[in-house]
Amino acid sequence: MHSTTVLPSGEQYEITSGSQRATIVEVGGGLREYEVDGRPVIDPYPAEQICDGAHGAPLAPWPNRLADGRYTFDGIEYQVPLTEPEKGNAIHGFLRWRPWTAVERDDEHVIMAARLFPLDGFPFPLDVRVSYQLGPHGLTVTATAANIGDRSCPYGYGQHPYLSPGRGLIDECGLQLAGRTRVLTDAERQLPMGREPVHGTEYDFLQPHRLGTTRIDYAFTDLVRDPAGRAWTRLWGPDGACVELWVDETCPFVETYTGDTLAPARARRGLGTEPMTGAPNAFGSGDGLIRLEPGESTTTTWGVGLS
To answer: Which molecular function GO terms apply here (predicted)?
Structure first.
């Protein structure tokens, strides 16, 4: 008998364009690695290891935390399993550990698809597709969800790439964030408890400066946008290269995470920069919650590159 090695993240789908190379995976449909001229743009995880810290994963049908795993929609209360039991939360939706299918693929492009069938606590069927496209301006990611059921459903989307410093820790990097307002969270459960302007605080990175040992695990909103409606996060590595991630106007929130709670060998090796369509606990609070009618779809686009 011949033994076959099964990678923890399943099938690996490599796409290339010039000096760019990215790998998208079957398990979770996420971005495992992306580099330009051999320089990592996002912090990768090894093919032989389980995805840690949601590296590169699409987060649906909600990103971030849901308090007590409980929400009410159209007057009905629902309960989903707690996937962060130590904090009493459900986190990052249902699709991180499910197999996705590559439904379209060429040298520079792959589309990953997953169907979410009704679940106890989320009885709403969804089709989710995430397109990864390399081009002259980097990697563009387009996520679309369609309500294939016969009633309205709640929805939110996020994704969890970590911007790479190129080498070493992010402490030596320069950082620029677009967020003028920080979503305050409690220390125990990391659930929203208000908002605060970043001006005059340690979280004011509207003008770029050295990150140092600042610890961040917050959503930022009230985003500064360019004329095209994009909001940018920029991380300058010790090598002088700048990783730039942008989000479109469907994302009013970007979660920034310095990775301090990852395993010691992985901590602060990348900057979690997460496009989000809603606030943390959006299913519970309604803050940024998307309502999808039967047959309706919603699309979010973001991108990342090296300059």
So the answer is: aldose 1-epimerase activity; carbohydrate binding
